[in-house]
Amino acid sequence: MLLLCIFILFCGFFTVQGQGRVYIGYAGSSAVPNLQFSPNDATPVVPVYLQVINATDPTAVVTLNPNVQVTCELSYPVDGYSNATFVPETVSSTNVNSTVSFNIPNPGRTLDVRCYGVSTSGQFTRAASISPPLLFTIVSAPIVSLCTDGGVVVQNVTTVQTFQIGFSEATLSAVDVTCSQTTGIDVTTLNISLASSGVNESKITVSYTLVTAGTPVNVQCSGQSQTGTQYQTATSRGGVITFTINNPLLRIYPRYMESTSPSFNLLLLLESVPDTGLPPLGCQAVLFNTTQQVNQALNPTNQEANCPSTTVTTTSTTTPAPGTTTTATTDVSGPAWGATITKTNLVNVTRRAGVTAAVTEYVVVTCCTTSGSLGLTDAVFVEVSLTPNVTLDWSKATVKTAINDARKYQNPAYVDVAPCPCDLTFNLCDINCCCDTDCSDVMKKSFSSCIPGLYGGQSAPIPEYDCDSTHPLKDDWFPMMCVYREYNALLGYFYANSLSIRASQKFDEKIAGEEFYSYKEEELKTSPVSSTAYMSGSSVTVTQDETSQQFSVPLVLPHRVLSGQCAMASPVRYLEDDKSDCLLDLNQASCSVDGSFNALFYVESSSTRSPSCPKLFVVRGSNGVEAATVAVTSVNYHCTTDFAGYLKNTTTLLPTRPTNSTTFNYTLPNLSDQDSCGNDITTDFNVIATSTSDETPLPPRCSFDDGYTRPPTPSYNSVTSFCDNTVLEVRYKFYWSGSQIVRLNATVIMGEVPANSVVTQKYSTEFVHSFSGLTNNTQDDYQGLGTSFDRSGWPGYSKGKPLLTGSAMTLSDGAFYVNQNTSRQHALWSTDVNGLCYNAGRRSILFGENSITSCDIYLTAAELFGDCEDLRKLLINRLNNLMAADRIGRFGNNNPYDSTHWTTVLRGNLSYVCERPVNMTDADVIARESSGMCTDVVTGINLEVMYAETGKSNNQPIYEVIGSFVSYTNITLNMTCGTSGDSACQGTGVQAFPIHSSVNFVKVSAQTPPRIDRWLEFYDESICSKDTCWDELLYPLSSAYDGDSKQFALAMVLVLILFILGYLMLVRPWWSINL
């Protein structure tokens, strides 16, 4: 009785104490709290409440014991995900609501948070009180960025100038923007005004003035919200932008020239034209007597003295710099020489009078701005050697020619008018011109090389539109639209002679009449948004202005075309899965912001906010202006150091040939646990194991990837000769529903890749249906998942989709079930770059695609001289494990509980191989195996799948699997000795033996054809008697042949017979000569 009372009291104690639980949220409220925080939050906390439940009577009220310590934990706090340090909170018995604070918040991607309580009384334990998980996110603080591409150019003027500021989040209240700048000696000083934004603004304009001009200055801006904590000065600072003074520069080219003509031209350029426009310019040519005076005139401090004193404005316009126009000025001062600026940026310098005797004159041409505050000057020196003009009396000439008649050139199709086109100098040897007759043999030996290319001298660079061009940024239509050029000396491949042109007007008309073509796109083409919804095969589009979305461009990826070249801008097509790769040269030039090695070439996460401008290109979820949506995009960046499979023709990073024996990463079970073929008989196939993925694990996440920061651009490291931040692979996975793209998950693999290498860049796109809940019309959710699942087609197979296989098993209740675990499916070898079977993986079999793959094992001669039995068993075990299924699904989606949805896989008989050691009596086989030959070794497994078209659905064929057979390939393994010094044959090396797997799809008739009666063979000409078609021996003479006329066919057959008789008469195989 005493023990019973103690037991009742003991049970009553724990019943009254109850079990404590912690929940995230607020007591008495069903609302799920929003656990999204920002580093700007003053006191970030997670709301929790406690509850004690009586296990035997849930309605009973149980008292909360005091001093419960509550804390929280994150699911996987790793790089790239939100992270925080939680501070444990002690909760008293009087208040079940509490909060758990945290500090040191690190922004990152969303993950799960759970909270739990621990008490000394045992009422709360971690295992029993832990709360259900909720999503937890720490977003990055909004920032303020200068909207510029590279930097800001400051005009060297005192007027007010402006630049734009972008906010990563639309302002919830007015935000004050302040900008700081670096200071130092001779550094540019700016007076940047304080700016304030309004509400719901994403960009504002900030004004500034130049105080002192100097070296470039770095500017950084931040914002402070007038109300609230959205923008904080400490956390909103954007990137550093460099402000550089725009220093216009006036230059005359060439810097020095020798001339023998009283008239010559110089090129005038104005670099870095100011925003105020091009100032008026003037030029003057001054004659000096000595070189000392010339040097003084060329001194920049003295150039202004030689500027033109008077200018005359003409009606012509000049364009010294692209994109600007001005009124040219013509200088008329100077006693001997005059300078005029023409409309083609030339300074025409002319002597106003001829010379009476041979003379060398020193002319300094000086050009200056004639008004304004720029004060630009430049001067060049021209040494002119002149001789007096000689007057000739042409009337006394013995031979008179009409000077207005055009010179007639000989037809180059018949006469070699240019036997040595690179011979440009009369009576002198032109360097590297090997056909120049003025060059002696001694001179030719000193040449570095002969001028390459066709006749005509140095070859010009290959233009981008040429088919032989190797430039990287090729459009997808390049192979079709490129121009192929051919130069040869065949008759008719020469240009016709043009008529002579003696007037400038005729020359201008000739130029205007010529047609010029260009395939270069000067800017990214945009098109108005189509009102047509996405449909299969249409281009997926992106837009930059996510608010108005009035214009869009196709989303592109590089893609290999039929010619083997790479189209760098191939559109991504809606609902079309695709995989491709391109071989690209990675060097110091291509390691830049331009091209597909840059991560910014591809889509970016929708959450990217650093920097805040320019705006991202976002994927359009649907077409149509009125109902346009934006697909949420999440890009994951992973950085790898393993470049196997990405680099080509490298010797330092790719694995070398093994030097030791290498087979499989597997050990045969004990003899008692294997059958005669080496298969494991202890595995319980009635246990459904956890599925494993065929995909290669992704490398670690990049350190910069927190979901909010823009990826870095490629940069060349001159110390290591590596290209940092190089994109190696891009994977797009689109989730779609109807005619909309719901979201896009992208994976970008990057790395630090050696420069001067060939990179295999890989790309893939996949479209997955976005599940929004099963309806009554969905009848093939056989496993009752209630979630999205992949089909291989419906109702039949779709070509290119995985072949559904598995192993039949019996459940505990005796029901039929097909185990579709990855380890029980048919697969092919998937090897890495070294091709070893030791680390080979599995590759899914795709319906309708015939494939053969192989891997290599390396064996020594000693292993072949030993017992071959273990080698046979090992290979059979691994090949059967590769194709372990005994069932193949008939349709694109099959009920695993219905045996009628599956066909049985037939297998070849291996008993003659597995049991041969017991029954082996062939002395020849024994002798061969003892001499280093392993006979009847299974080295390949082959799957043949028979399918038929059993109907149509929506005008599409229904493909159904009706049978399959697995066969084996067995050969004799022995060492192949190429030379007497072969290390493998001497027992010190290894030799490779391939182990292959293959699949072959055979389309057969949906119904078994009826048998043909034998008597029809005598009446039906299309049926050959006993499958022997004698008519085909002379098929061209048969009635079935209709390719040529009977007369022609008979003639050809007679000629063939004649050749055969002649050959037999020459060879005479019926003669035998015994010596």
Automatic annotation (TrEMBL):
Pfam families: DUF1619_N, TCTN_DUF1619
Keyword Lyase recorded: no
Composition skew (Low complexity), residue ranges: 309-329
Domain Tectonic-1-3 N-terminal as annotated: residue spans: 409-498
Record flagged with keyword Glycoprotein: yes
Superkingdom, taxonomy of origin: Eukaryota
GO biological process, alphabetically ordered: cilium assembly
Region feature Disordered, mapped onto this chain: 301-329
Membrane-traversing stretches: 1048-1067
Signal peptide start-end: 1-18
Coiled coil (UniProt feature): none
Entry keywords, A to Z: Cilium biogenesis/degradation, Glycoprotein, Membrane, Signal, Transmembrane, Transmembrane helix
Tectonic-1-3 domain residues: 531-769, 792-1003
Family: Belongs to the tectonic family.
Protein name: Tectonic-2
